[in-house]
Amino acid sequence: MIFKENGGKKMAKVEIGYYDLADITISKSCLLVSKGKGKVNMMALDWKSIGELWSYPVVTVAVAPSRYTYSLLNENPEFTLNVPSPQIESAISIAGSYSGRNTDKIKMAGLTLKESSHISVPMIEEAMISYECKIIHTAESGSICSHRLYFGEILAVYADEDLVKKRKIK
Predict the structure, then answer these.
(1) From CA 129, how far away is CA 125, in angstroms rounded?
(2) Whole-prediction pTM
């Protein structure tokens, strides 16, 4: 169990199954965190899916070659996918409006990084759901738009305990 502070009250995060809250994750804009070149970066992400590849649970994300995150993912093949809670949804616009090449978007958004259990890339502590992923495959998106698809094996998923209770996940 992982704990976070929320106005002086400790909020627990618990590990859940790979697909338990996939419907929420797919329906919301997310924050993808990557790490490389000695720094951590986040980007706003809408193009994603959750499923399986070769019997592994995966999150597939699409990243344009022009994005700073693209170079970081190619350097360090790991990422966390973080679903913002309502309190931090404004971080999506910050993550989507600035480049991590010259801006610390995490600091600008007032977010806290939390060490992951299975990978070197941290999670966003204030996120309501966080996925730890290790890239196991990549593919080019094709002629419709120029993006690379990163297939990240889901190693662990954490969610706010209150959300887990509300959804009656065991």
Answers:
(1) 9
(2) 0.92
